[in-house]
Amino acid sequence: MILVNRDSDFIGIWEDVMASIGHGLMIKFGLGHEPSPDRADEWARLTRELIRQGMSHDAAGDQAAKRLFSDYRTRHYASQADTIALLLQQAGDKK
User: Fold this and answer.
1) 3-state DSSP call for residue 91?
2) Which run of H or E residues covers position 83?
């Protein structure tokens, strides 16, 4: 039997990155839940598309969140949220 440490496992690392992105999105946009990895990917794709169309990072991330998350701005968290650029960078790091 071969044991693989979860920390060295690519899938485990990917899950950790996506969890941090989901948590970051939840804090940034006042969501009542952490988005799934698929929803986080969808947010990143839409945000990048809006940036390509000429929106600023902040406006694009905000607009994408409004479109995708029905619980947008339903919560207020006291912690400091990540920037859109950092969230997009984290989404890119998982690939």
Assistant:
1) helix
2) none
Structure tokens at 5: 């440490």
The angle that helices 57-68 and 84-93 make with each other, rounded to 10 degrees, is 70
**pLDDT tens readout for residues 17-49:** 445 889 999 999 999 999 999 999 999 999 999
Q: At what angle do helices 10-29 and 57-68 cross, to 10 degrees?
A: 90
Question: Does the global pTM surpass 0.90?
Answer: no
Q: What is the pLDDT of residues 5-25, one digit of tens each?
A: 555 554 454 455 445 889 999
CA distance 22 to 2: 31
Instruction: Answer for the pair 51, 57: CB distance below 8 angstroms, yes or no.
Output: yes
Compute the CA torsion angle 33, 34, 39, 44 (nearest 10 deg).
Answer: 120
Residue 95 CA to residue 38 CA, distance in Å, equals: 13
